[in-house]
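Q: Can someone sanity-check these two? First one:
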Amino acid sequence: EWDRWLLMGLIGTAVGMLGFLIHQIIDSLIKLKWDLVENYLQVSKRNGTWSMGTDVVIYLSTGQDGNIHMTWLCALGSGLAMVVLSSGSVLFFCPAGSPSGLPEIIGYLNGTSIQHLFNIKTFLGTFVSCVLAVASGLFCGPEGPMIHLGALLGCGLSQLQSDTLGVHLPIFTRFRNSADKRSFITAGAGAGIASVFRAPIGGLLFTLEEVSSFWDIRLAWQTFFCCLMATFTTDLLSSSLYGFVYRGHFGFFEAEKRIIFWNLLDMNVLAFVPTILLGMLGGLLGAIFVSLNIKINKLRMQFFNSIPKLSLRKTSKLLETVFILVISCVPLVASLGSGRNFLALEVGCIFSFPCSSEQGSAAALLVENGKRGITYLFKRGTHEEFGYASLCTALAFYFILSCWTAGSAVASGLVIPMLYTGALYGRIIGLILVSIFGVQTNKYGAWIDPGLFAAIGAASFFSGVSRLTISLTVIMVSMLS
């Protein structure tokens, strides 16, 4: 069995390297977009609350030296270019890579045969579409495609043959059967989850709970080893190479202090009352989200199937993703004026708001595809930073557009939108508790904090949409360090 364990380790290492590469490319594309944008604006930097990578706020003046209209067009144009390439890569190059690949992987592992799901064209198309879709500003994340890419690596490295390339290597030939192939694909999918969330146990439990129906204890240990290697490789690369954005920390969101388990022995039993409420709200909103998404996709299929010509149908799907991005880039409030400072934050474009306004706070919550906004929402001791208006505006905006984006012609995931949406209404509940009981400074009342309930709300909506329980709990604890 040594060769099986060796392959599991190689698959985990390859998936970890791929996960690191995806995050680096996404960050580089976002940075490139901002570098282009800054050419059109007079930029002054000073310390403040909202951080763009470091403890710096970027205030943009719309005076004579700044052109906010050209800035908006530049950011929108770069986002549109990425969306067109992202959608085109899955529509015209590899249709099997759209939209996320996770349902197809689950179907295959449970006995359904799907053509072109595991070939080199699907791998390349999914990779390109994923990084461009996330960097463009669409409300999505790289999680679903990363599971698909991990499964592709599991299939390719275990079979070591490709009909597309005409390659058939004469090693590990004993694994070229249906049962072993499914085992390595299962391990690769789990490694994809482990690499994205830095959660090896979560990756194992996800494959057990959600992905595969054929399971045994040997496969469990081998999948866990594969997930460990993926997590270790991603964190090693993130922390070892000088000059890269990421630094070595376990967990998807680096916390300055523990978020939920402040002191387990001092946890007040009253904290479970709003937690139960959040769980019920997460289930309700999750059901609404899934139902709305199913209806949107049914309408989408009916409309596109009514177009007889294939090339026109694919072009229409591409134009839909472009339209979604344009809607995502519409400023919530147009507040332009001479000599005034504005806080510029991007979701594929520039949102311009007076810095102290509720609209400015709502724009700040939409920065960098949700991940940075989630980090803000999870911070403890920040009950004054976001008001009800900004949270409700961002919640409605993100809920609708993320539901619309899911199922469009790009390789994208839903985990970031699920975490973000849940964190928004969780923080609203936390603010209500703060307004009722006040800000608590003693250790027994420390649970009354909007950041804590943002984390619980994120887990509740994630569970409401995905129907995950045990694996989600482990993933959330791992993500939150």
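And here is the second, same format, sequence then tokens:
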Amino acid sequence: MEAKILVFIVFLEVFLSSNLVVVVKSEGGGSWELLKNSIGISSMHIQLLQNDRIITFDRTDAGPSNLTLPKGRQCPIISGRKDCYVHAVELDMVNNLSVRPLTVLSDTWCSSGSMLPDGKLIQSGGYGHGEKVVRTLEPCRTCDWKEDYNVLISPRWYASNQLLPEGNIIVVGGKLQFSYEFIPKSPRPEDHKVHDLPFLKETRYSSGIPNNLYPFTHLSPDGNLFIFANNRGILLNYVKNIVVRTYRVMPGNVARNYPSTGSSVLLPLHLSEKLMPEAEVFICGGTKPDSFNKARAGIFLEASRTCGRLRITAADPNWEMEEMPIRRVMGDMIMLPTGDVLIINGAANGTAGWRYARVPVHNPVIYRPAEPVKAVRFEVLKAATSPRLYHSTAHLLSDGRVLVAGSNPNHNYNFTVPFPTELSVEAFSPPYLISGKPRPAINAIKPGKNLAYKQRISVEFQLNLKVGQLGKVYLTMVAPSFTTHSFSMNQRVLVLAVNGVRTMSGGGEYAVEGDAPGSAAYAPPGYYQLFVVHEGVPSVAKWVHIK
């Protein structure tokens, strides 16, 4: 009898912990829209291309997805077996949300990626036979993945990528890989060797719980690379392989990287004609260093609600700590075109990993870094209905909404467990889209959409003001990110130097005069979303290219 009671109690605890959610309030700023009930796959990795198509993919070793290859498409051999299921898709955000199946042959599980300056998606590493693969996808209506095997020198599983001023990509870390290398491979000697990075070995919590996978990488405006792993960061001269700065440990005894997954962004770079911009990193969430082991034993520790800001270009940088309204692990931090930060997805208890999280956090939070009063920087927003836990994603769209997809804390596709595999795609509209304020609309970019560094530009826009005069106007450029495992690689917001705003006609037509970024260290070459922001409301973006 006692044994039966014990089993019942354990079952009840699991049931309750699986069904608890964090909903701070039912109403809040912003709104949610279900775009598609299913895209056929669970979105583990995601990238927006310059044709406004989303590329998203899962892994190839999780068994069948919910989408099969179209008739006439030959089923490939993957891992020695015939596989007729789709593991990657293109989602057209412009034309009726159509889904186009893509074919990926090697295992992309927990891989990384970037957009090359020419607009190709380059994607690296993964698991097993995919760990040294480099894949590319061109932005065209019929293009599919091209895969080059054994391009990477070291296996890269749970690594991070960053686009560099030279237009190439640095690939940092990976499981048991305490090094970095560059892609695409060129004749340069440095592309054909592995560069040791002892920092990645030093920051491991233990061999079983690294807490430093998917390290946070941010390109500093001085051309060096900021790397954060576990609880501290360095500034790396990746050309000479020299650590030029070592930063203080982030306070709080919280691990921030996988599997104790927090998230990180580089706050907006405010550009001027002459001065190098200050750079500030913002890191939020995570959990106790041993949370992974506790979760394996059925104990789901509370996640952290702490955040830290570090001005990495300051003479004597110190962490400025703050607290989110909601504790969170596996949250995604998405930079908005206004320069604010959206924190979305994740859980309040547990850690990353298969079935190791509990208590989904349904409320996004917005963080306004320019607000001088700490107490009002955070705002809790309208709750979602679907939990988004391990292997969920988020990405800024050109219309200012944030796409939210994925969540699969299961070994394969499973729809009968407390936290089932999620195939749906939603869009969250931040408060600026439902504020009732007039929204600017870009009419023209002069001299054109192909920009040169330090170039003077004029952005003509329409704004139908009902009452009052023109308010604060500024220009932002947003680099599209490759998002997976709560880190948006290459994410970057540039607030351009503005020289003035002029009225073009009495019909609400204006032009804002600004300067393109002055250096590839500020804005690595490639495609960006250009927004006009008026009184906190962004336009729909126009894609520009800089080199």
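A (reply): Looked at the second one. The first helix runs from residue 2 to 19. Helices lie at 2-19, 199-202, 291-296.
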